[in-house]
Structure formats: structure tokens, C-alpha cells
Amino acid sequence: MMDNPKDLLIQLFIKVQEKKEIDEQVLNFINKYFSGGPEKVLDVIKRGIIKRIYLPSERIAWIAIGDNSEHLLYPKLFCSCQDFYKNVVINRIRPFCKHLIAQVIAEALGQYKTENLSDEDFKEIIKELSLYF
Known about the structure:
Layout: H1 5-19, H2 24-33, H3 38-47, E1 49-55, E2 59-65, E3 70-74, E4 78-79, H4 82-90, H5 98-109, E5 113-118, H6 119-130
Parallel strand pairs: 1-5
Antiparallel strand pairs: 1-2, 2-3, 3-4
Helix pairs in contact: 1-5, 3-5
């Protein structure tokens, strides 16, 4: 039986936040739970993680900058990327995608940008996403 993905990511967050770095233990975690390897996760962090705060509701959504698009994240739960849909939801090959791991690490290290947008902007993003699903 697979460990609870949310609990695993919470443990990762705590480890990274305490150590304030990506060390061998973090790299081993990534290797164990993400077959693509640490390089892909670290590349996502380098491309950018954004915390978007939508006002006036104060709804928060996270974005991972992808190769050709942005991926909407709900930390420890959901990513809008195809890998999440295919390998996490449908095939259950892995507990999470590289974007979810990268978001946890970036948040724990404080290595992300923050943007304030309107609630109308959030509605537009959701409308765009519905075209994919």
C-alpha cells in the first residue's frame, strides 16, 4: 500500500524547512517517490514557482512554470499537468508529479514569487483549464 501522498509531502516540507537546504536526504526522497529524478524537480524550481493571491477573496493558488505553459497547483493535492493526470490519477504509478514536489521545496525554502491578482483573473484561469479536461 502506498503512503499517503499528502503526508509524505508534509514530511518533506518539514525536513527542508528545518535544514534550509536541498541535501542528500531530500534528493533521496525525490529519487524514491519520483522516477524522473531530482534534476527534473530542481529544474522546475529554477523555472519558477509563483504563489498567487486572488483578491478580495484571498484565495491562494500556486503556479509552476512549465516548459510551454503554467501548471495550477493546490499544494500536496493537485497539479494541472498531464503527468499528474496520467501517472498519479489514472495509472497510479507515482504519488505526485515533479511540480508538487518542487512547490513544497520552494515554499519551505522561501524560493518563490508572490503575485496579487483579482478574483476575475482566477475565474479566467479556471475557464482555460476546463478546456483541457
